Protein: Triosephosphate isomerase
Organism: Thalassotalea marina
Amino acid sequence: MTRPVIVAANWKMNGCLSLVDEMTASLAKVELSENTRVIICPSFPYLASFASKQIDCNLNANIALGSQNVSEHEKGAYTGEVSTEMLNEVGVKYVIVGHSERRSLYKETSSLVAHKVAKVLNAGMTPIFCIGESEQERETGQTNTVLASQIQPVIDEIGIENFSKIVVAYEPVWAIGTGKTASPELAQETHQFIRQFIADVDLEVAKKVSILYGGSVNAANCKELFAQQDIDGGLIGGASLKVDEFSHICSAV
Ligand SMILES: O=C(CO)COP(=O)(O)O
């Protein structure tokens, strides 16, 4: 089973209009291999600009727009929130759901995250569903239990038959923004656990689902990480804000 290589950029609360211009201009020149998919997730105010630049720069159809979050509600009196319908309208195809920063800083629970995953799927977009353990959880041997407790509510909410329609992003919290990347061997071992956990429910779904690694991915380490059997690309923070480095990652994998 050949799964695509997905390179997703999570700009977090960084970037500006000129970064949208520079990134789209640079991506327009990048030679992507046929099997590569690129997803750029800027902050809400830049989504529409990115979408119009996609057209102006005639970007490769394998470069898509993503959002970093979405409301679990349909519409109405939810000041400051953004709905799936609004994201759809501006051309968003992917939505990051349950990033560890949303879970820890904004107290998003695994059940809320599962609800959002379903909402995104029902709206015809692809959730990038994030999971990961803290440093303390890894050190005390709880990694697999934590990951299972994050994945199971999503299986329960959407049904295993829909699980291959989502993208999973494994991001160990201790590797995010710290420069402490998981070694390729450790990342592979954890990805293998995630795929096996899904395979125990449905082998075919497990073979199809894309599982990305995130946490201090950069131009120097991406190739070795993405070459691992169960690693299907990356969710990239800091390095995705550097136009040359990010473009290099997209063309190198
Ligand atoms: O959180 C991340 C992507 O969602 C990873 O961030 P860094 O690549 O900056 O470690």
User: Anything to note?
Assistant: The chain has a mean pLDDT of 97.
